[in-house]
Amino acid sequence: MTATRAAFDIDGRHLSYLDFGGTGRPLLALHGHMSDAASFAGLAERLAPGWRLIALDQRGHGYSDRAQDYTRAGYLDDITALLDHLGLDSVVLVGHSLGGINAYQFAARHPERVEAFIDADGPASLGLDGANPLQFVLALPYAAPTRQELVDGMGPMAAMFGDLVRERADGSWALPFHPRDIVDSEGHVHGDHWADWTASSCPALLIRANHGVIPREQADAMIQRRPNTHLVELDTDHFIYATDPDGFAKTVNEFLTNL
């Protein structure tokens, strides 16, 4: 499947997105930290032609510009801006991790624009002990004159991040995210979001990875406290779309079919 990359401006920033095309119903996809719109390519292919998947490079990720802040409100404003840019009154949302939290918070605050949402391993409460699990990325270099210099500067972490580097317009090479931005964003996503989780009433699907970040007890509470919500558990890790692409797509498709 060939996706079309497009962009628009908001508050002096460039936001990029992939439109996988087709005439199906629109499905807006929101990735997690250190990922980008392309992470949904496999899902888009498996859902076509019934659904037209549009995936946003969220602020500070992929080909979208860095932002001055990574607050909850900032991410949600970007979603509003994209829907307005596309001329879409309402959509179904699918989000992974950070994107899953963004999806249910957007549904809580803009219920008229969300027909349903899918939250893939995005907790309702996260990191209340204050620990930031993404601090380790601060050891990564952000940019270098050549690809080899950038990869060499990563040391052992090159196995995880080396394939992500990309060439910039000036010929230098960089990661598709700034490590400082990621830590700031993770800090803002931590907290108690139960009020947002329970605020909307549209159909919702919670996909929990058995080896992910949502404790089983919290997943049970998320289903009990929010009506019209279905839980599916997959025996994989947090990066569901990559480690179990078939199971992820099957689960999403079954939910969408029943809307």
Could you provide a short overview of the structure?
The chain has 259 residues and is α/β, with parallel strands linked by helices. The chain is built from 10 helices and 13 strands. The longest helix is centred in the first third of the chain and has 15 residues, at 72-86.
Keywords:
alpha/beta, eight-stranded mixed β-sheet, Rossmann fold, 259 residues, three-stranded antiparallel β-sheet, 10 helices
Description:
The protein has 259 residues and is an alpha/beta fold. It has a single domain (4-128, 180-257), classed as Rossmann fold (3-Layer(aba) Sandwich), CATH 3.40.50. It has ten helices and 13 strands. It has helices at 41-47, 72-86, 98-109, 147-154, 158-161, 179-189, 194-197, 216-225, 240-243, 245-257; strands at residues 4-10, 13-19, 25-30, 51-56, 91-96, 114-120, 125-126, 143-144, 166-167, 173-174, 191-192, 204-211, 229-237. It has an eight-stranded mixed sheet with strand order 1-2-4-3-5-6-12-13, with helices on both faces. Strand 3 (25-30), helix 1 (41-47) and strand 4 (51-56) form a beta-alpha-beta unit. The protein is globular, with a radius of gyration of 18 Å. The chain starts with a strand and ends with a helix. The mean pLDDT is 97.
- Strand adjacency order, main sheet: 1-2-4-3-5-6-12-13
Determine the fraction of residues in helical runs and give it as a percent range. 25-40%
Helix-strand string: EEEHEHEHEEEHHEEHEHEHEHH
Structural class: alpha/beta
Computed CA radius of gyration, to the nearest angstrom: 18 Å
Architecture, CATH level 2?
3-Layer(aba) Sandwich
Total domain count: 1
CATH homologous superfamily caption: Alpha/Beta hydrolase fold, catalytic domain
Number of H- or I-type helical stretches? 10
Low-confidence stretches: none
Main sheet record? 8 strands, mixed
Proportion of strand residues: 25-35%
Structural shape:
globular
